[in-house]
Amino acid sequence: MDAGLGQNTTSDEIKVGVVIDLKTNFSKICLTSINMSLSDFYQTHPHYRTRLALHVRDSMEDIVEASAAAYNLINNEKVRAIIGPRSSMQAEFMIKLATKSQVPTITFSATSPLLRTINNPYFVRATIRAGPRIFKARSPKKKTIASIVKSFGWRSVVAIYVDNELGQGIMPSLSEALGDVEVHRSVISPEASDDHILKELYKLKTEQTRVFVINMDASLGFRVLKKAREIGMMEEGYVWLLSNGMTHMMRHNGRSLETMQGLLGVRSHVPRSKEREDFSLRWKRKFQKENRAGDGTEPNVFALWAYDSKKKLLTVLRRFFRRNSTDVKQSVGIPVLSNLKRLYNGHIYLSATVTWFVGNCRKIHGIPTTLLLIGMSVESSTFEIINVIGDEERIIGLWTPSSGLVNAKSNKTTSFLGKRFGPVIWPGNSTVVPKGWEIPTSGKKIKVGVPVNKGFLNFVEIKTNPISNLTTVRGYAIDIFEAALKELPYSVIPQYGFEPPGDNYNDLVYQVFDGKWDAVVGDITITSNRSSYVDFTLPYTESGVSMIVPVRSNKNKNSWVFLKPWSLDLWITTGCFFVFIGFVVWLFEHRVNTDFRGPPHHQIGTSVCFSFSTMVFAHREKVVSNLARFVVVVWCFVVLVLTQSYTASLTSFLTVQSLLPTATNVEDLIRSGESVGYQQGGFVKDILLGLKFLNHSSSLLVLPKNATIYCPKGHQKVVLQQLLTMCPTLRISFLKTASNMQWLNLPSRRLVLNLPLRPSLTQGS
After folding, report:
1. 3-state secondary structure 690-738
2. Are 720 and 703 in contact (CB under 8 A)?
3. pLDDT at site 426
4. Rounded CA gap, 470 and 624, in Å?
5. Are 15 and 55 in contact (CB under 8 A)?
6. Between helices 626-654 and 568-589, what is the axis angle to 10°?
7. H-helix segments, 107-210
8. What contacts 740, CB < 8 A, 6 or more positions away?
9. Torsional sign, CA 337, 342, 348, 351
10. Does the keyword Kinase apply (predicted)?
């Protein structure tokens, strides 16, 4: 198609080639913007006699055809510049051809950072950055994707890209931007058939990661999304992040947003303004005029870039290809732009072309943008994060180099999109943030071993339904384990298996090391030998080795128990003092007090009764002598001390002393030489043997696993393993069933055995 597209062809004609995929809606959008740019330019500068003649060629969505079209334009049409092509893969070959022929090539849609302008001095890009720092600095687009992934706490992603040099070139910058996030790779050939795409998607579906980042050509990328929906990979729990190019092309080429519900996308941000709204209205009218089926099509950022690149090219060519310029007559093989070149660090730059092409970095002929000049590329410094909801693309946030993720409305910095911007609609019409990790239906579940014990079912209880023969497990340890799994940032489905622990839990623990189990959950104690083979989580309850011993035999509960608080000497001394005080009071009072006179037996009885009645301060006789009064006051104080001391001693003797254990530590057990029991299946036997109980006339009594707490006849001391120590339900059972026993704690440590999920479970606890 060789025409000026509405422009008059004069003797001052400058030929410019356009290579684009004419069968796509994208080409119609870009051609509309190019025609608008021509019309606006010549309306603004009607006095310009130089006219641009566009020669449009169809690349037919093929790399070879695009290069052939460029070769034809350069050698046959003698074009002075080329606009296009659409894709980065097409641009790679065209750039080499144009550079060899010294024909400037301007692209507004090839977004791959691997297209380097430094090594291609006749290549000017109006999209994103490129240059020698591509492997040293992360591109803003990759930083935006990394910020989204980190803000939602996803720890693993799958990057889906094209199997070519351009596709592989994005991985270093993406991996660097994601940092600690684990990146899996999925490579799809650019010529992949639908069957090959399905095969790769089925492979991804059988793996655990559910966060997918697609960075590829829009036509191939939307084919991948279509097949993903067909096999159920657009359901709840999945996350899809689209790159800049795909996000801008969502509404074009007849695609419906209803098939992309819940997707997140990143695209270049162009602020709203009066100039932009005016441009959009004029663009829509022109597009509908040129394309009858163009109702509802909106100009995207590529339309703006195409519009601006054409205007800048017109300005450059008008400046350097005047009527009196001899360069116009030169052949293509001669460097027609020699007066625009300058040498810098061994690289050739089209400095004047770049300067005029970029123009005002903050304003594109009245249309505000945020574009930065990087080498010979124009880079969008701000990106929008959009969420596809219904038939609209809702902007949920922005990303800027200075602030990172910000609220699109309030412009406030945020670290979590869901909290700041309201609920995001995810695939499957879900408002719950996906964990990013699921056990696939065809995937391997984690095998969790559970010790089979008949005793102490509060920790682990295994029941089998006699009708369905279905075995279920429950208990305190199981509840804690499943609650911890729910707090993980990904889904874990345990598959329980049951294993008798044998004489102790060592064999069960070693089975984890051998790979039979991924984890073991139960009343398992951490020991030094076990921790050498497996990992343990933090303890979910306090622990310690305890022993249960009988209380002292209470042989003092008889009718003479009231005499026990004092010794015989104290009783005799106290009685003598009562008699002595009676004699002293009689000595001072019988001469002056008639109450202490009379027959001898009367005086003796009165004096002794007066002395003993002072214990309850109930003495009836009045004391007249001052000396007698002083003695009575002192004696009443002594009697008060004696009565209080006796009451306290008697109370202690009847209560506290009857609760004392027969042994308070292990040394007492060793010295007593009594038999000591332990529960079968625990590690306490090793502790007892280590303490050399058998060498001190002690014997070990093995208690069954389902033993009730008791003290068997003939065995005064019973030691049970620490699993019974801190469980509240077992403490209650102990208080109800062992009235003649006492619980003693000995310091120790207990942890629950873990699996490869130890770091996550530990962090979650």
Report:
1. HCCHHHHCCCEEEECCCCCCCCCCCCCEEEECHHHCCCHHHHHHHHHHC
2. yes
3. 92
4. 95
5. yes
6. 160
7. 140-151, 165-178, 194-205
8. 550, 551, 711
9. negative
10. no
Q: What Rg do the C-alpha atoms of the chain give, in angstroms? A: 47
pLDDT of residue 259: 72
**Alpha-carbon distance 582 to 387, whole Å?**
104
pTM of the model: 0.56
> Which helix (H) or strand (E) element contains residue 585?
helix 568-589
Tokens 């419906």 sit at which residue?
Answer: 256
Using 70 as the pLDDT threshold, list the residues of the chain that sit under it.
1-12, 110-120, 126-139, 166, 252-258, 292-296, 310-380, 407-422, 439-444, 454-457, 488-491, 501-504, 541-545, 551-558, 618, 656-662, 678-683, 693-765
Look at residues 282, 302, 242 and name the one whose alpha carbon lies nearest to residue 85.
302
Handedness of CA 281, 286, 292, 297 (dihedral sign): negative
Q: What is the pLDDT, as a whole number, of residue 444?
A: 61
With contact defined as beta carbons under 8 Å apart, do 449 and 521 qualify?
Answer: yes
Q: Which backbone phi and psi does 371 adopt, to 5 degrees?
A: -115, 140
Q: Compute CA distances 187 → 169, 183, 240, 453, whole Å.
A: 12, 13, 16, 50
Nearest CA among 629, 572, 33 for reference residue 283 = 33
Integer Cα distance of 460 and 472 in angstroms: 11
